[in-house]
Amino acid sequence: MPLLLNIETSAQLCSVCLSKGEKVLALAESNEKFVHAAKITQFIESCAREAQVTLRELDAVVLSKGPGSYTGLRVGSSAAKGICYALDKPLIAIHTLQQIAHATHQKLGLKARYCPMIDARRMEVYSAQYNAYNEELVPTEAIIITEDSFTEQLASMEEKLVISGDGAEKCKALLTSSQVIFDDTSCSSRHLVPLGLKAYAEKQFENLAYFSPFYFKAPNITMSKKRI
């Protein structure tokens, strides 16, 4: 059973866990804002101590690759790649929306269409859609949520649309169809474990020299109005 270090920093939650096979040995998480850079190495060290293992014993590092927060993804990627380079370990990258969809299905067990969402400021979300087998039906897109969102799609569907992730909250007041189910499952390093195991068994490893997180959109950078 492979020993995996799982890192999730794509959203506000900073989350790290160590897993052996399907079992989570140690988990450290914080939902404070802007703590990823300060907490990530502390969480990795605390998980290693709790699980009584060393990082040299790792079989691979599993990273939630995005989409999500530009800064958060850079922090997680830097930590994961640093460990992999230093210890010559393979890197596994899991699509953040895919892991939310998979975890939501594991929780609910419904034969439905799963629509994970990540908050992308104001009423915008990053979203995709998956079936109950975690197969992508609609690729990642940035959408503005309105009361008309998904109206045409729902009219042509018989199955339920399950919306989860930290972007789901902004939809509840607008999407009132009985076909829509809301679930509070969101991204967490523990949700990376089953998909990371599958990728490890299939040797789906990233090229460390060329890997970059799935930012999806460029960072929102503003120019200073001060004269230099």
What does this structure look like?
27% of the residues lie in helices and 26% in strands. By secondary structure, it is of the alpha/beta class. It has two domains: 3-95 and 187-201, Nucleotidyltransferase, domain 5 (2-Layer Sandwich); 97-182, Nucleotidyltransferase, domain 5, CATH 3.30.420.40. The strands form two sheets. A five-stranded mixed sheet has the order 3-2-1-4-5, with helices on both faces. A five-stranded mixed sheet has the order 8-7-6-9-10, with helices on one face. α1 crosses α2.
Which overall shape is indicated by the principal axes computed on the Cα atoms? globular
Through-space gap between termini: 57 Å
Share of residues in strands = 25-35%
Can you say what the CATH homologous superfamily of the largest domain is? ATPase, nucleotide binding domain
> Strand-and-helix sequence, N→C?
EEEHEHEHEEEHEEH
Largest sheet: spatial strand order:
3-2-1-4-5
Quick overview of this protein structure:
This protein has 5 helices and 10 strands. The protein has 228 residues and is an alpha/beta fold.
